[in-house]
């Protein structure tokens, strides 16, 4: 008995109603004794095709079972139907980018990883840096070595020194079918960049939820925008939640998120600001502290008063050297890095929650 083989390869991209997808090609051929004297008939989910000599067909949007059979052109013998080949059409592939680590110190290496949902094989990956476009959103510039894509689903950035956003997309086939771009993911740097710096006032990471907040941009640019990524990752500019005047953004109600400045060519250091509804907050440095330098942590009440009798904790362990409501470290080392919080020993009338939330104290090495 003569049997047929049904095989599939990725083919040309197609577009319908503005939505583009891949075309799958099904090819029918005779296992034994095939030749140009055969013509082929297809059975597909929505209709039969008349016999034709090409032996192949294309579909891009119909899920179901496909089979074929052949017959001699002179009207002679006819084969049986081939085994069915099942086509499953999935939704538009969506790339997902992750970055590790998301917070860096100068000189760190960062790994970008791109996956495609729903998962499937045969992709090459393209990597881009997100360049701020102040009047719009971002434009994307290919990273080195990414012109034709990479077989690997990861890309390593060496010597990361500043805050920057990245995207990826995937492609396969000839000509290439591309997915959409991924969402922008940022690699944050808290270290001050002289070409672009963010100043936070009041100068601390923790704020009361009813406080106003001022964020100022400085550096080698005449035009800036202040950006915020909230806890869900949604990004927005100052114009959505504050008032931008020159290079300063003012908001009457602080909210938690990562804040940074952008110009057409630079991104500033980032600050991970948190807001709290309790009665006390930790006063700690917005920027990483350089090794060998001093740092002072404090504890302040919602009433703006500093607490005098305070215990300080690092990684939930009580520290013995808090004096006069402050914790002073004269020469910071990398071992001082960690999560800090403060707790008032005596509770003033009407104040019940006298333990602050934690904030991360980052320590950087001094580079020449």
TrEMBL record:
Highest taxon above the source species: Eukaryota
Presence of the UniProt keyword Transport in the record: no
Protein keywords: Disulfide bond, Signal
Residue span(s) of domain Ig-like: 21-68, 93-170, 278-355
One GO MF term attached to the UniProt entry: transmembrane signaling receptor activity
Protein name as it appears in the record: Ig-like domain-containing protein
Organism field: Gasterosteus aculeatus aculeatus
Xref: InterPro entries: Ig-like_dom, Ig-like_dom_sf, Ig-like_fold, Ig_Fc_receptor, Ig_sub, Ig_sub2
Gene Ontology biological process terms from the UniProt entry: cell surface receptor signaling pathway; immune response
GO cellular component: external side of plasma membrane
């Amino acid at each position: 008995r003569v049997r047929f083989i049904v095989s599939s390869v990725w083919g040309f991209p197609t577009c319908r109603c503005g939505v583009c997808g891949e075309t799958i090609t099904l090819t029918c051929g005779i296992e034994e004794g095939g030749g140009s004297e055969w013509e082929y008939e297809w059975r597909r989910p929505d209709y039969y095709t008349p016999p034709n000599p090409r032996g192949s067909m294309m579909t891009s949007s119909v899920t179901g079972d496909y089979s074929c059979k052949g017959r001699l052109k002179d009207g002679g013998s006819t084969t049986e139907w081939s085994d069915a080949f099942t086509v499953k059409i999935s939704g538009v592939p969506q790339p997902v980018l992750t970055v590790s680590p998301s917070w860096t110190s100068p000189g760190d290496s960062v790994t970008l990883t791109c996956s495609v949902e729903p998962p499937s094989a045969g992709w090459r990956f393209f990597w881009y840096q997100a360049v701020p476009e102040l009047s719009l959103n971002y434009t994307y510039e290919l990273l080195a070595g990414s012109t034709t894509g990479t077989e690997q689903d990861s890309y390593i950035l060496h010597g990361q020194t500043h805050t920057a956003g990245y995207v990826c997309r995937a492609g396969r086939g000839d000509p290439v079918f591309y997915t959409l771009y991924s969402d922008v993911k940022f690699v944050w740097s808290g270290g001050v960049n002289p070409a672009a710096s963010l100043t936070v006032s009041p100068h601390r990471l923790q704020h009361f939820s009813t406080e106003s907040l001022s964020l100022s941009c400085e550096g080698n640019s005449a035009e800036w925008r202040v950006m915020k990524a909230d806890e869900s990752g949604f990004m927005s500019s100052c114009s959505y939640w504050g008032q931008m005047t020159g290079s300063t953004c003012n908001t009457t109600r602080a909210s938690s998120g990562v804040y940074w400045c952008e110009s057409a060519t630079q991104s500033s250091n980032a600050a991970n600001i948190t807001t709290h509804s309790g009665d006390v907050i930790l006063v700690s440095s917005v920027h990483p502290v350089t090794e060998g330098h001093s740092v002072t942590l404090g504890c302040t009440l919602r009433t703006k008063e500093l607490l005098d009798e305070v215990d300080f904790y690092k990684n939930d362990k009580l520290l013995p050297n808090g004096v006069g409501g402050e914790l002073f470290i004269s020469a910071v080392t990398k071992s001082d890095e960690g999560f800090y919080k403060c707790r008032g020993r005596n509770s003033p009338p009407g104040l019940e929650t006298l333990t602050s939330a934690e904030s991360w104290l980052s320590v950087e090495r001094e580079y020449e």
